[in-house]
């Protein structure tokens, strides 16, 4: 498979904007910078940020054991997903495949980019129907989105199913691993070398407790990464984001400790939910949330709102009738949720 054949013609021909900081590299502290029309008075943010985030990227590369040439950062993984659309999908011509119920942004971005979306619903166990997916593909199918662990169901997909999809689909397979750090499954990042058509996305928004700084990660072959680097906005990761990420990622063991706590709380929450009489099913989860089936999702959702608790009502999603998605909070927050459930189950 030649990735160049999948790129949009305009992207193949694109000459990227060359910023002042792109044209001169190799800065040392005692140099005078009069190239970018910045305000010279130092305040910590008066200079443009590094367009390739070298310091942060090398730290992330070390943490994840992935070479920097296989990493690109986006303004949230949502920007990464948008860049993937813009690189590979020709508006009003190409299509993408999604596997509902799943993350809503794949569809929003398809609509935004004038790309047709083909949906193949997951089966009753929220697993991909591989044969049906492969038979839905046509010559204009450029992207296949796999969210594992999946949002909103919480489960991971069988590795054999993903392997078949990545091996047999003739376009780009995007595996969204926003919740991988909560899962026992191995990340697909380690298999990038085996699959030139594989893109993996992750985020610091969930397990790394940095949703507010907007930092998403894209892993792919050096060839794909260089295309995405060429089409991204030059300064897409701002200085404050780069600094805050470096600061928190340098606290040894912080994320690991919080993930362990969240997983412990998740098991406690699941146990407590078993005693709520209107909850008929607790779906298996590999993420920091739990999907539950209730008697009447709209009613229960509104009752919780009245008690000042906001959860996510997923009842309109395919295969998710009368389900609610509960994010695992602190021990105190989960206790408040369970108490409210107990109270409303008596009313
Ligand atoms: C939360 C979430 C994201 C969003 O990531 P950002 O980096 O915050 O944009 C991506 N994919 C899935 C499946 C998510 O649930």
UniProtKB/TrEMBL annotation:
Its cofactor is pyridoxal 5'-phosphate. Belongs to the class-II pyridoxal-phosphate-dependent aminotransferase family. Histidinol-phosphate aminotransferase subfamily. It catalyses: L-histidinol phosphate + 2-oxoglutarate = 3-(imidazol-4-yl)-2-oxopropyl phosphate + L-glutamate. Pfam families: Aminotran_1_2. Gene3D superfamilies: Aspartate Aminotransferase, domain 1, Type I PLP-dependent aspartate aminotransferase-like (Major domain). Its EC number is 2.6.1.9. Pathway: Lipid metabolism; Amino-acid biosynthesis; L-histidine biosynthesis; L-histidine from 5-phospho-alpha-D-ribose 1-diphosphate: step 7/9. The keyword Transferase applies. GO terms for biological process: L-histidine biosynthetic process. HAMAP family: HisC_aminotrans_2. It comes from the Bacteria. The keyword Iron does not apply. Keywords: Amino-acid biosynthesis, Aminotransferase, Histidine biosynthesis, Pyridoxal phosphate, Transferase. The lineage of its organism: Bacteria, Pseudomonadati, Bacteroidota, Flavobacteriia, Flavobacteriales. PROSITE patterns: AA_TRANSFER_CLASS_2. Residues 43-341 form the Aminotransferase class I/classII large domain. The modification N6-(pyridoxal phosphate)lysine is found at residue 206. Homodimer. One of its GO terms (molecular function) is histidinol-phosphate transaminase activity. InterPro entries: Aminotrans_II_pyridoxalP_BS, Aminotransferase_I/II_large, HisP_aminotrans, PyrdxlP-dep_Trfase, PyrdxlP-dep_Trfase_major, PyrdxlP-dep_Trfase_small. This is Histidinol-phosphate aminotransferase.
